Amino acid sequence: MNSILVDTNVLIYALDQSSLFFERSVKILNGEQNQLFIATKNISEYFAVCSKLLVDRAHAVAFYEELRINATILYPNPASLQHFQSLLAKYQPKGNRVYDVEIVSIMMSYELKKIATFNETDFKSIDEVEIYAPK
To answer: How many domains does the chain have?
Structure first.
């Protein structure tokens, strides 16, 4: 069983049938061997991106409701805040990279190592995670 945190871009690509990553995103989300996790940070990013892309709100909400049924939602907690502070010191991220470090800190607090993402550059320099991006 693959325990995987799903990054926001995988969710967005799974909504867009014209995306080059659509089929791979759906494969990740529907993979029977995958146990899916989503951080609350990813949920807020998902809705922010959907609103920017003018995704029909009812469609975005319906997709989110499916995610809630099929994935475990992870919340920040005292342990994730400690990890976040350590990661900030270690990587000294700037700009949007701070959000990636926050996501990793939440993963660490739940002892997750794998993240499904197609934005590999966001996470490849962070030693604490492994990128899961099946072909």
So the answer is: 1
